[in-house]
TrEMBL record, chain A:
Domain of life, source organism: Bacteria
GO process annotations (BP): maltodextrin transmembrane transport
The species this protein was found in: Marinovum algicola
Subcellular location(s) of the protein: Cell membrane
Source taxonomy: Bacteria, Pseudomonadati, Pseudomonadota, Alphaproteobacteria, Rhodobacterales
Identification of the protein by name: Maltose/maltodextrin transport system permease protein MalG
From TrEMBL, chain B:
Any one GO CC term of the record: ATP-binding cassette (ABC) transporter complex, substrate-binding subunit-containing
Record key words, sorted: ATP-binding, Nucleotide-binding, Transport
A GO molecular-function descriptor: ATP hydrolysis activity
PANTHER family on file: MALTODEXTRIN IMPORT ATP-BINDING PROTEIN MSMX, OSMOPROTECTIVE COMPOUNDS UPTAKE ATP-BINDING PROTEIN GGTA
The name this protein goes by in its record: Inositol-phosphate transport system ATP-binding protein
Keyword Nucleotide-binding found: yes
Organism of provenance: Marinovum algicola
Pfam families referenced in this protein's UniProt entry, alphabetically: ABC_tran, TOBE_2
Amino acid sequence: MNTKGNWMLILALSLISAPLVIMYGFQLIDSVSRPAPGGIIPQEWELTNWRFLWTSIDSARPSIWRVTFNTFVFASATALLVCAFSITAAYALSRLNFPARRFFLAGLIMLHAFPTITLIIAIFIVLQFLGLYDSLMGVILVKAALELPFGIWIMKGFYDSVPWEIEMAGVQDGASRFRVWRELILPQVKPGLSALLIFSFLAGWSEFILPLVLAPGADAQVLATYMNAVIADDTRPDYGLFKAIGMFYALPVIAVYLLFQKRLMNIYGGGTKG
Amino acid sequence: MRIELQNFTKRFGDTTVIEDMSLSVASGEMIALLGPSGCGKSTTLFAISGIHRIDGGTLHFGDRDVTRLPPQDRPVGVVFQNYALYPHMSVADNIGFPLRVQNLKPAEIKRRVGEMAELVQIGNLLARKPQQLSGGQQQRVALARALVRKPDVLLLDEPLANLDAKLRLEMRSEIRRLQRETGITAILVTHDQIEAMSMCDRIALMKDGRIEQISTPGDMYERPASRYVAGFLGNPPISFLRAEAKGQLTIGADNALPLPHGTAARGPITLGVRPEHFGPQHRGPSIAGQVSFIEPQGREDLIDVTLPCDQRLRAIVPAGHDIALGQPVTWQVDLSRVHLFDAEGARL
Ligand SMILES: Nc1ncnc2c1ncn2[C@@H]1O[C@H](COP(=O)(O)OP(=O)(O)OP(=O)(O)O)[C@@H](O)[C@H]1O
Ligand SMILES: [Mg+2]
């Protein structure tokens, strides 16, 4: 009965996810082949769609490696910032009794649900004022700030599940509050932290609107805006090239998911189990 | 180290949990804070440890005023109810943590952790993680960690509550042994009267944030200061009867006892009779009733006797009797051991 139930479940899941899998499959196949015009069966295998990796596809465009590097810097800096602020802010919200704590908590929930895109004009003006418009630094700060409510909320959940007594025991053992946090509490929320790190990295990696609006120049281009430029600029769009770049763009995401699946699950479990 | 808590007051927001409580514990003594749930035992304990700031009163360790000292600077070891071991550290690192905080040399830490582990008999478990230990072993690690700094005071918050019955017995004597061997002044918080009586030199029985009576286990059992104390100590518990103290002590319409020596005639009182002081094997004035319940216990039986006035007395009777349910009996009360309380519950 149980195994039969399992098979039914797997079958149902396969049916639902089949369109996605087929799309990914064709994306890959299409990027290295040329189908007959109007058909879908690959005729010839070729790598011309991947030429962006070793040649410049257009003299006006930065090299793909430069753009990939930018994307990587953007995503990792965002992730690091989000984590650094989340672990400290969430601890304070979870454990310390400071004035207006309730106000901050309420604000956090509201910001979490806020449609951030409505802020884009204001952010644009602020960045311009600060001289950070059209720089990678500016987008990193904005993206990190917008991801923070989510990060703090998640981390607060993890801190809340660490028993008070551990903290009291540490203090009684003579450790300062900071040392207790670093040596006794932080290790308990590490699963949450690594999940958050991966999550905000992926969020940065796939961000499109913010770089598009706030850093449109060639110097700060990331993969998402690069792809947009490829498809939008040309008079005769090269879909094969577009697919190959898309594939290239998605590869790290797939790799990260495959590698860190387990840790990502933690964020939904919210527990302290490794 | 003598502990002197004077006029201690603790509030949480607007609610005063403890008001004007004083407690002194002699050096090397083990005292129990005993009381029902919510009476303020843990609050008192954590005020002494420094985790709770106190809202009024003073606290001295020996001659030193520690009222305003942060918990880090108090010479206190605490064992928490759920042990609060650090789950990511090995047993050795758990025990060594207080020493690492003091920046001792690794070799010194290792030596003292080893010593401590021997003392609590977990020398072979040092490499394990807390999750790999049984409840009793975790308890020992928690004790070792609390004692490794050589504190002057050991505080235990319901240390046995999470153990099964057999382990509880074992750890009871184990904790007492450690306390005696180290000569440390200890405060044990518990709501189990047997734990308090068997482990401690003295008991402070608490009720609603006050200390109702503080005395040795024997004295508190023999001479409870109030009806509340008498009812809290003893298993099976004492039976209370409503009575009238006039020329005689009348219980309902049909039973009467002579007034115990030195008791003046007064209105309604409460008579407390422990089950071991009532039964066919005793000498003294008698009370008549009907057997309404028999609970065999092996060596002896617990027998309830319902009086004609519908009040109940419990007796402990040695096994091997031929008493049957419903049988009318007239049994003796050891009048020198009964307790009388006035209408407010104070001892007469
Ligand atoms: N942080 C707190 N905020 C508000 N009230 C509290 C707080 N801690 C304890 N109290 C209240 O203080 C009273 C005493 O609590 P305490 O924890 O000392 O009880 P206890 O005697 O240890 O009980 P138990 O046997 O259940 O542990 C309780 O009524 C409790 O609700
Ligand atoms: Mg308690």
